[in-house]
Design brief:
By secondary structure, the protein is α+β, with helices and mostly antiparallel strands. It folds into two domains: 2-113, Rossmann fold; 128-283, Tumour Suppressor Smad4, CATH 2.60.200.40. The protein is built from eight helices and 16 strands. The strands form two sheets. Strands 1, 2, 3, 4, 5, 6, 8, 9, 13 and 16 form a ten-stranded mixed beta sheet that branches. It has a six-stranded antiparallel beta sheet with strand order 12-11-10-7-14-15, with helices on one face. Helix 3 (65-75) links the parallel strand 3 and strand 4 (81-86). Helix 6 crosses helix 7. The longest helix is centred in the middle third of the chain and has 15 residues, at 154-168.
Length: 292
């Protein structure tokens, strides 16, 4: 028996009766399933807690990266396996673990049950599977959500929010400590990836592996916020540049002068966390069902 946590707010508008459709697909694949539809973020934690308490063999996250993060947060360190049915917009984790984006193929992947272990990142105890960041991106997300509450579509809101934030953004001074070195820089962003990301060319934003046992910190000390669009454009066409710096670490402490709390993004969700931020990697702490 598997439990499927279905986020009705993530990518299911294209599906008719998504809960029934998923149940039928799992039945056709020879797997007994219990579909738990979610209608609010508060219901997510309750449904996952119930699934864990009932000792489900597998808990499946059917939604976007936020849903995957919520399920993973409950399963990290346990022997339960997480399945993924990617229904979000970007589906970063599914892409990097090669989980099919096609619904029927994703269900068959879960049914086949091939399990591997992947690393998990943490910042102040908060789990992230993809990345965490401070600086310009969390500010854009907050502004985007204000616009979405006013009725604007997601990508339009993101574009408008980006322009608005870039117009006045001056960067952030960060002090990064990872034994045995310390970096103090002004940068538009600090991006901490769970394992190494491609930062140039056609594989921009992708990872080759999720089990190296390392976090990778990326920052741009010689880039002004107004130059960020140019930096992204150069990366997209595979052009070399020397403005982005990075280093690997198992643990990382991050602070900013005069700030006791920082706006932090983890897998696209933004929260306020106490400074300094304490990052660490938990090697192979999560069991995930992946394609054969």
């Amino acid at each position: 028996m598997i439990t499927v946590i279905l986020n009705l707010a993530a990518g299911v508008k294209r599906m008719q009766n998504p809960a029934d459709q998923l149940a039928s697909l799992f039945k056709a694949a020879g797997v007994r399933s219990r579909i738990v539809p979610l209608t609010s973020p508060a219901a997510t934690s309750d449904a996952i807690r119930s699934a864990v308490d009932q000792a489900a063999d597998v808990v499946v996250a059917a939604g976007g990266d936020g849903t995957v993060n919520s399920v993973a947060s409950a399963l990290v360190g346990t022997e339960m396996a997480m399945g993924v049915i990617p229904l979000g917009t970007l589906n970063h984790f599914a892409r990097d673990t090669r989980i099919p984006l096609d619904l029927e193929r994703a269900v068959h992947t879960v049914a086949a049950g091939r399990v591997t272990r992947v690393d998990v990142g943490e910042v102040n105890g908060r789990v992230f599977l993809n990345n965490s960041s401070i600086g310009i991106y969390p500010d854009i997300v907050v502004e985007r959500e204000v616009l979405r509450r006013q009725g604007h579509r997601k990508w339009f809101a993101f574009a408008v929010a980006t322009v608005k934030v870039l117009r006045h953004y001056r960067g952030v001074v960060v002090r990064m400590r990872s034994e045995p070195s310390t970096h103090v820089v002004r940068t538009p962003f600090l991006f901490v990836g769970n394992n190494e990301y491609h930062v140039e060319g056609r594989q921009l934003g992708e990872r080759d592996r999720l089990d190296s046992g390392l976090l990778f910190a990326y920052f741009a000390p010689r880039v002004h916020s107004r130059d960020l669009p140019k930096l992204l454009a150069r990366a997209l066409i595979g052009r070399e540049h020397d403005t982005l710096e990075s280093f690997a670490a198992e643990t990382l402490q991050v602070g900013t002068p005069g700030r006791r709390r920082l706006r932090v993004a983890t897998d696209g969700e933004v929260t306020m966390l106490s400074a300094p931020l304490h990052y660490r990697v938990r090697p192979r702490a999560l069991r995930v069902i992946v394609p054969g």
